[in-house]
Design brief:
Layout lengths: L1 H7 L3 E2 L24 H4 L9 E9 L15 E9 L5 H13 L11 E6 L9 H9 L7 E4 L1 H4 E2 L6 E12 L17 E14 L5 E14 H8 L9 H14 L7 H22 L10 H19 L6 H13 L4 H5 L1 H35 L4 E2 L1 H11 L3 H10 L3 E2 L1 H22 L9 H21 L5 E6 L4 E6 L6 H16 L4 E7 H6 L13 E7 L3 E4 L14 E10 L2 E8 L1
Parallel strand pairs: 1-2, 4-5, 10-11
Antiparallel strand pairs: 2-3, 3-9, 4-7, 6-7, 7-8, 8-9, 12-13, 13-18, 14-15, 15-16, 17-18
Helix pairs in contact: 3-4, 7-8, 7-10, 8-9, 8-10, 8-12, 9-12, 10-12, 12-13, 13-15, 16-17
Bound molecules: serine.
Serine binds next to strand 8 and strand 9.
Length: 586
């Protein structure tokens, strides 16, 4: 209905983007519908025109610990419409109002609607235009509230880019309770469902707001929240969007979600986290659980889910069957979930199993230490204990922190970071002592094998997918060893395909050139690297013809034809989610 409404108002319906942002290392996941549209909000022409709408899958984990209340979700669907320098406040607000209140559309009682607008800061005035438009539509002044920047300004906090004031729409969930002060209410009576952002500024690196060359509209309506309001439900988890999943959990543990508040919370966390994990793993650009970036967020979601599942006494292997329910429920709207079903189930099942094995021992250890600390009147858990829980039992730091908070304990974050850094330094020293940069020596044979790893890396990505990343390498004059992120055993066909690609690249006799650039320039050029801040400002990139571009210290051969014939000798598991290839040049 939403897409139809905006189509009727001249909008092109475009498809939603991946959950993994394209070419943008500043965010881990797509957090709003505007995210994939940033270049167009800044002025680039969009091929579908200046009026767009869509449904975007989003992940937000900033509030992960709030999941369990009536409205917080880490995965949600956002309905959005955009004006790229086309219409502005007048039309945007009028259409929001019509869609929300018209009997032909959502049909909310206009008396239940409250809105907020931006109150202004020095240099940017109160959004009087929005107030006037709302009044003209019939909203009494008593239900139009001016709020400060923290509430009514959209823009990635602290970062540069398109931003602007917004007007947010709320539904009164308890109109029978009489008048309430909107600003004072902290009972969740007023439930936000839609946000119209007027993106007319660009925040510069100096923190200034300069007018954009075009004034845009970016609106976002939370699907789950809106459905809860339409169906008169007290929480998003009671809507039909969640009913199959909640039923599946109830069946698996023989309990009712509404039993008591602790059980309700655990149900909600399990349902939310399983759904998020399924969508992350089911994305065509999937990441798999790891200790880095997106993989770490995914791991944290799954492990947190397992912890709450324990509380409900869900049987081992619960995550696979719940994931099946999610895939079946959403596969029509998101066919990628069906396509990637096997990966979703196996990765989720594997991570669950791995964590279940150590969870009890870790919790036992943690409870013991917490008890001891409390007996001695200590209110902070030492950093090295937090690190040990991470290192030995796979407890993400945030996880330990959350459990501690429930027991009124703080954790020593700084001490944890220190213990972590020391550990990293020691392992680095260990690695350096044996091999510099993974190379045993700088002989021709070793150098050639090193060049072959670049061809291998790229070929693995081509055959297995973009999730493949180098995790380590170790090269002697006799052979190369290459570790990479991937969780299935490679089939014979896949190994063969990789060999063919590498050998073709060798046969093409491509030149290899080195360039010293800034990290930024290498990133922009699309060089493969971890980009995790461990590189110096100026770095070397090696280009092999048009085939591969990678940040690397060298040394490398001058052209590929000297390498000989590449052959994979062995492919095996190295650690969870990481495979290891041994290969030779003959
Ligand atoms: N970007 C705004 C939000 O996410 C409106 O779409 O709330």
């Amino acid at each position: 209905m939403y897409l139809g409404f905006f189509r009727d108002h001249g909008h092109a319906v475009i498809s939603g983007g991946s959950l993994i942002p394209e070419n943008d290392p500043t965010v881990l996941f797509t957090t709003a519908g505007m995210h994939p549209l940033v270049p167009y909000l800044l002025g680039e022409a969009h091929p579908a025109g200046t009026r767009l709408c869509n449904v975007q899958k989003c992940i937000r984990t900033g509030d992960i610990e709030a999941v369990g209340d009536v409205s917080h979700l880490t995965f949600f669907e956002m309905l959005g419409n955009w004006s790229l320098g086309d219409y502005f406040k007048e039309e945007a607000i009028a259409w929001s109002y019509e869609f929300l209140t018209s009997k032909a559309y959502l049909g909310f009682d206009p008396n239940l609607l409250s809105v907020t607008v931006f109150e202004g800061i020095e240099g940017i005035p109160l959004d009087q235009a929005s107030i006037d438009i709302w009044k003209k539509l019939g909203l009494p002044e008593s239900r139009i509230h001016a709020c400060p920047m923290v509430d009514n300004w959209w823009g990635p906090a602290g970062q540069t880019g398109p931003c602007g004031p917004d007007t947010e729409m709320f539904i009164d969930t308890r109109p029978g309770d009489g008048d309430a002060d909107f600003h004072e209410d902290n009972t969740g009576r007023f439930f936000e469902i839609w946000n119209d952002v007027f993106m007319q500024y660009n925040k510069t690196a100096e923190g200034l707001y300069e007018p954009l060359q075009q004034a845009n509209v970016d609106t976002g309506m939370g699907l789950e929240r809106t459905v809860a309001m339409l169906q008169g439900k007290p929480s998003v988890f009671e809507t039909e969007l969640f009913s199959s999943l909640i039923e599946a959990i109830e069946d698996a543990c023989s309990r009712r979600m509404s039993e008591d508040p602790d059980v309700t919370r655990a149900f909600r966390v399990v349902a939310d986290h399983v759904r998020s994990a399924v969508f992350i793993l089911g994305d065509d650009k999937a990441v798999v659980p790891s200790n880095l970036g997106q993989g770490y967020v995914l791991r944290r979601l799954i492990r947190r889910c397992v912890r709450f599942a324990k509380q409900l006494e869900l049987p081992m292997g619960f995550s696979r069957s719940l994931a099946e329910t999610v895939v079946d429920e959403y596969r029509h709207a998101y066919p990628e979930l069906d396509r990637n079903r096997d990966r979703v189930l196996s990765e989720l099942g594997r991570e669950e199993e791995k964590f279940e094995k150590t969870l009890d021992r870790g919790l036992h250890e943690l409870n013991k230490v917490v008890q001891k600390m409390q007996e001695h009147g200590q209110a902070t858990l030492p950093g090295r204990v937090v690190f040990k829980l991470y290192d030995t039992y796979g407890f993400p730091m945030e996880f330990t922190e959350e459990i501690c908070r429930e027991q009124k304990m703080a954790i020593d974050r700084e001490g944890y970071e220190k213990a972590f850094a020391k550990h990293r330094e020691l392992s680095k020293q260990g690695a350096q002592k044996s091999f510099k940069g993974g190379l045993a020596d700088h002989s021709d044979a070793t150098t050639n094998l090193h060049t072959a790893t670049h061809l291998l890396h790229k070929s693995l990505q081509m055959v297995l997918g973009d999730h493949v990343r180098q995790r380590g390498s170790n090269i002697t004059p006799e052979r190369l060893r290459f570790d990479f992120s991937h969780s299935q055993k490679m089939t014979d066909e896949e190994k063969q395909a990789v060999e063919v690609l590498v050998n073709q690249a060798i046969a093409d006799d491509m030149p290899i050139s080195m360039e010293v650039t800034s990290l930024e320039a290498a990133r922009e050029a699309g060089a493969m690297a971890l980009f995790d801040g461990k590189y110096a400002e100026q770095i070397k990139t090696y280009r092999i013809g048009e085939f591969s571009l990678e940040v690397c210290g060298g040394p490398h051969a001058e052209k590929t034809s000297v390498l000989g014939k590449f052959r994979i000798k062995k492919e095996e598991a190295c650690s969870a989610g990481v495979r290891r290839i041994r290969a030779v040049l003959e």
